[in-house]
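Here is my example:
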Amino acid sequence: MNICFTETETESQEFLARHLSDHKLSFVSDLESVPPEVEVLSIFINTRIDRALLAAHPRLRFIATRSTGLDHIDLEACAERQVTVSFVPNYGENTVAEHTFALLLAVSRRLRQAMSAKRDGKFSFEELRGFDLKGKTIGVVGAGRIGLHVIRIAKAFGMEVIATDISRTDTLSEVLGFEYVSFDELLERSDIISLHVPLTPVTVHLLNRETFAKCRRGIVVINTSRGGLIETDALLEALRSGAVIGAGLDVLEDERLFRSQAPRLMTEEIVKHLQQISSPEELHLRHPERLAEIQQLSANEALLAQPNVIFTPHIAFNSVEAVERINQVTVENILAFARGEPVNVVPL
């Protein structure tokens, strides 16, 4: 088969080449470089699959995403073109859970402020005073594989744990010592809210102005799932008002900011879209979504500038062991499809 990979590193390329030696492989840096004759396409989270991409590659039969999340793939379009999609159902439950607590500890012990204290020439025990996790109530939104690992770690810290999930397993709650509650009750009782649900039409902006208003004042928010779960403007307002005293974020609504500076990105967006119109008024009338993109970039830049925000560039999954598991399962997915017995298939 003709197989193309996007977003790969040298070590991963060598692993894939060894284990898929009977097939024709290519590795590209962007979708524009994907060969038109490709039959299998393996992607990661920053590669978006849409109708245009599928139409441009009529021989494409199989997409193997090296992720658990699927929000970067138009599954409806894949179903229409009878393109099979596989994913990696689990590879980094403990990895992401550990990173969740790395962010939480960094927020609770004010590490960003502590690291800048010497540079700014200002030191104060009072200004750098953190808080204990022991005895705090953590609300876990999504008690799946990752969420359950977070619960185990939280219990080891002596935290009280409540969780909400669309499905409940009472045996697990009894064994691990946590309580299932409704989402609204979780908002009302939690000192810390940690998000571990996929991004779907139902979960977009799960945390917004309305839900923040239901929370106790002075909460901490941790997000290692998807940026779209939180309304950026609402979180920014909550941080500035003190309704939220800290946030640990591994994801953003617009993650281009992790790879480039906001002024440059905004300039590129403005120039690109001004080239397509005859007047600034036309931009307002015909391209409101373009203005929304620029506003989103500005809001995310302001969010990352907050001193009580700890952020990492979508690397919660990124451990040596997790990447090895991703590569291994991806190879298994591709070989199974080649045999006509696909595994880890996404229902379309």
Notes: The chain has two domains: 2-91+320-338, 93-256+302-311. Residues 93-256+302-311 form a domain with the Rossmann fold fold (CATH 3.40.50.720). The mean pLDDT is 91.
